[in-house]
Amino acid sequence: MDLPDSDVNPETGASNGAAPVAAPILTDPWASDHGALGLVVPVLAVAAVARRLGVAPATLRTWDRRYGLGPSTRTTGSHRRYGVEDVARLDLMRRLVNSGVAPGDAARAALACDLGALPAATFALAPHPAPPSGTDAPISGYAPTTGTRSGAGVPTARAHDAGSGGQPRGVVVPELPALPGLAPAARGLGRAALALDGPACTDVILDSVGRHGVVWTWDRLLVPVLAAIGSRWEHTGEGVEVEHLASESIIAAMSGVTLRLRAPANVRPVLLACTDEETHSLPLFVVAAALSERHVAARVLGARVPHEALVAAIRRAGPAAVLVWSRVVVAELAGLAELCAVRPTPLVLAAGPGWFGPPPPGVEQVHDLIDAVRRIGSTVH
Q1: Alpha helices of the chain — where are they, by DSSP H?
Q2: Cβ–Cβ < 8 Å for 12, 192
Q3: Which of 100, 160, 172, 213 has the most Cβ atoms closer than 10 angstroms to its Cβ?
Q4: Helix (H, G, I), strand (E, B) or coil at 298
Q5: Smallest Cα–Cα separation from 288: which of 317, 329, 260, 327?
């Protein structure tokens, strides 16, 4: 279905992530009616609010028409403008939709919300800063946005002709491949990622972890969304910034889960590291978070750990288990033999699809998250 006068879905507000710009501050002509003659009140036009929230003007018009979430102020020329409370309710609506709430339910919640209970920052009409494009942390296991890809799905980006007040001809609508049969949170996370809304992404992930745990969240929420983002890049060549932001949001959420562990059951630590040429460290943070749920403390050494540095870390820390991740770079399992020679000997696990050759004595391969977590858990407890 073509989207009128928009570069996003007008029902959900999924945006192309264009950087917001400063919105105008206008004098409220009705200020004197409120007993504050000459008071300057920030009121915004629909385009300014759309840029600030990262949605399309057509989305705001749809929310106004269908749900009554529209501007409540008029200027001298009878132009409708959004005031402070209007923007606060719209921002709440956007966040609820991004978290997977149905638009109708989100609108009812936004209209019924006691704005006095919201943080003061919610009412600030200064534009949000441009969202970060992420760092070099492409998605591991589900293909980074450069090089060979894996993934499924068909591209759904579409170009629209210019209409009255619409986008120029050829503007691409950012959408993800369909995610049939998945929880609403998956669609909400996809929308938040496309809107480059890092805080919303992190909120959705943490909510899922709180409800279902890390393993379920990884398998049922994060993997499908990451695969859809990757498939979109594969077919369109666009979306590197979306993947990077989604990856950074996952790392932030998983790091937050890991930091909650205050009394680990293991005396000897668990070390998680990438091979010396592996740059995709995202799964290490997921493993650490899943272990922390089982009261096992792990230390993430990160990407591109030189072999000599990993051996030195094992000698210094005396870990109970070491997991080495390789996805893109092909690594020989025989290269892990030296890790087993350190005393006390740790459990050495090789994870990821980037390994070849038979494992040397003392080295085991694990093929999924739950396998790795169970194997490490049985060793340290």
Answers
A1: 46-53, 57-67, 84-98, 103-112, 184-194, 198-212, 214-216, 223-236, 240-259, 282-293, 307-317, 369-380
A2: no
A3: 100
A4: strand
A5: 260
DSSP three-state, residue 299:
strand
pLDDT tens per residue across all 381 residues of the chain: 333 333 445 444 444 444 343 333 333 333 333 333 333 445 788 888 887 787 778 888 888 989 998 888 776 666 788 888 888 888 888 888 877 778 888 888 888 887 765 554 444 443 333 333 333 332 333 344 433 333 322 222 333 333 333 333 333 335 666 665 667 788 889 888 988 888 889 999 999 999 999 999 999 999 999 998 988 888 888 889 999 999 999 999 999 999 999 999 999 999 999 999 899 999 999 999 999 999 999 999 999 999 999 999 999 999 999 999 998 778 889 999 999 999 899 999 999 999 999 999 999 999 999 999 999 999 987
**Contact indicator for 305, 276 with CB cutoff of 8 Å:** yes
Write out the DSSP string of 158-187.
EEE---TT-PPTTEEEP-PPP-TT--HHHH
**pTM, 2 dp:** 0.62
Residue 342 to residue 220: CA distance in whole angstroms? 38
**Contact present, 340 and 361 (Cβ < 8 Å):** yes
Tokens of 190: 């996809």
Give the residue carrying structure tokens 């990438």.
Answer: 274
Structure tokens at 97: 């939709």
Determine if the peptide bond prior to 264 is cis (ω within 30°): no
Contact (CB, 8 A) for 195 and 15 = yes
Q: How far from the centroid of its chain's Cα atoms is residue 94's Cα?
A: 15
* CA–CA distances in Å: residue 93 to residues 51, 204, 262, 304: 15, 15, 36, 41
The size of the chain, in residues, is 381
Whether the CB-CB separation of 375 and 358 falls below 8 Å is answered with no
Helices 57-67/46-53 angle, 10° precision: 110
